[in-house]
Design goal:
By secondary structure, the chain is of the alpha+beta class. It contains four helices and six strands; from the N terminus they run βββαββαβαα. About 13% of the residues have low confidence.
Length: 171
């Protein structure tokens, strides 16, 4: 225990060492605050006329932005041209196709607010940031579902060797 002076000089209180710096938001001075870095998917739907160099340039700019905030890009996927369910109207007309990309990243929770500059990007039709939640729960649910399927009576029917040969499933 140590003695800490209060606002009133006549009154002194005894305080445990662990509570000495409790007035500070981070606790003890010099202690690093743990920052949660959840996993996010950033879905980018580009206009179909954008060249590959333009896609790469924007993805690199997003990557630099994430990296400057101590984040990490873990995966970048391109799904190529996709047909849209409806036309997306922009200043240069309606678009019924788009180029879809997915960027997986570990970033700070305020990354959603920081990526709002993408709203002004003329190469994009739409963008969406999705947070990964409950990965462990999803894997156990998948295991439970696969156990139910393997225990099902549907798969207990005997199959003929002809069916296996047709499907290319030789033993």
């Amino acid at each position: 225990e140590s003695v800490r002076e209060t606002k009133n000089p006549k009154v002194k209180s005894r305080v445990h060492k662990s509570n000495l710096f409790s007035d500070f938001p981070g606790g003890l001075v010099g202690r690093k605050k743990k920052i949660k870095m959840p996993l996010y998917d950033c879905m980018l739907l580009f206009k179909p006329i954008i060249r590959k160099e333009g896609l790469i340039e924007l993805v690199a700019r997003i990557g630099k932005h994430v990296y400057s905030r101590n984040g990490v890009l873990t995966d970048v996927k391109s799904f190529g041209k996709v047909e849209l369910g409806y036309g997306i109207r922009k200043l240069d007309g309606r678009h019924y196709q788009g180029q879809l990309m997915q960027i997986t990243m570990m970033a700070t929770p305020n990354m959603n607010k920081e990526l709002h500059y993408l709203n002004k990007e003329d190469k994009l039709l739409r963008w969406l940031l999705v947070k990964h939640r409950g990965i462990e729960i999803a894997s156990t649910e998948r295991e439970d579902e696969s156990n139910r399927l393997t225990n099902s009576t549907t798969f207990d029917e005997p199959s003929s060797d002809e069916d296996d040969d047709i499907l290319g499933l030789t033993r």
